[in-house]
Amino acid sequence: MLYVLFGQDTYRSRKKLREITDRFYTFAGGRESAVRIVLPESSRFEVEQAVTTGSLFRNKQLFVIEEPSEAAVDVVVYLEEQLPKFAKSDDIYVIWDRKTFSGTAGFGAIAIKYAAKAQEFGHLTAQGSARFLEEEARLRGITLSNSRKRNILTLFSGDSWKIIQALEKSALENEKNEEVSSADTALDDRLIFSLTDAYGLSERVKAWRIYATLLDAGMEPENIFWRLISHVRTTLSIYSLVQRGVPVGDMARIAGVHPFVAKKAAAVAARIPGQNLKCRHAALVSLDFQTKQSRGDMALGLERILLSI
Question: What DSSP element (H or E) covers 238?
Fold first, then answer.
């Protein structure tokens, strides 16, 4: 019997692989009949020996065959020839790869045709990320506030590994009885940096979504405003230095900012035209003036600015 697990979301595909192997260990009464073959590290001879040598301990065997996309050509050719045998065998063969198998040709596509079950683990959608977070939190017995859920999904939607890391961090914080409010504040600070990054890179939808999350978490629009205008001013300063031909290594010192901040601002300045940066600065200055004159609303003004990038 042949199973094929593949795709870029290696956390979920590895989890599925563990489920298969754990069921086999329970059924077989041990691990003696399980064979793991890492193809990029194996020669054709070694692979052939591994898949043709019977077990001395059990009648049924499990073969986990990893990363054919990185294997040598002669290894892939040999495995492709064996696929019909794998599919008809009473033994279990699991092919696992971190790459995406697509099209109708190539080893991956042929393996899928012979597989009793093939499952792709692509990047999670927004809805899929929310379901994944809920399920993993439930399995781990971790309680998350609505604010924490929103923050995790805003920061890491689509990336199962980072969602799990955020969950584990939440579990540690719960064990240490840290105040939820202080933890949320730390996440809010990270969200602010994510917002300025999205704003600088003109990622309109992401910027607006993070902004809405910050407002829901109770952050004042004025605090968000000052972070944004500071970001734009720094980027304009770095842009000016780039235009003057100042070496990258000197920009942080001249602009009076941290080297990491200068590096990020230089990346934004390289992508956004100078006139666009000036317009962004002018829009923020105008919003500040209007609100101080009681002729504008800071929250709505920021929303309008973010949706216009």
Answer: helix 221-243
The torsion region of residue 157 among left (phi > 0), alpha (psi -120 to 50) and beta comes to beta
Cβ-Cβ contacts under 8 Å for 183 (sequence gap 6 or more): 148, 170, 173
Q: What is the pLDDT of residues 105-133, one digit of tens each?
A: 899 999 999 999 999 999 899 999 999 99
Question: What count of residues does the chain have?
Answer: 309
Neighbours of 117 (CB within 10 A): 12
Residues 6+ apart with CB under 8 A from 185: none
Q: Is 43 left (phi over 0), alpha (psi -120 to 50) or beta?
A: beta
pLDDT tens readout for residues 121-166: 998 999 999 999 999 999 888 888 888 888 899 888 889 998 998 8
pTM higher than the cut 0.70 = no
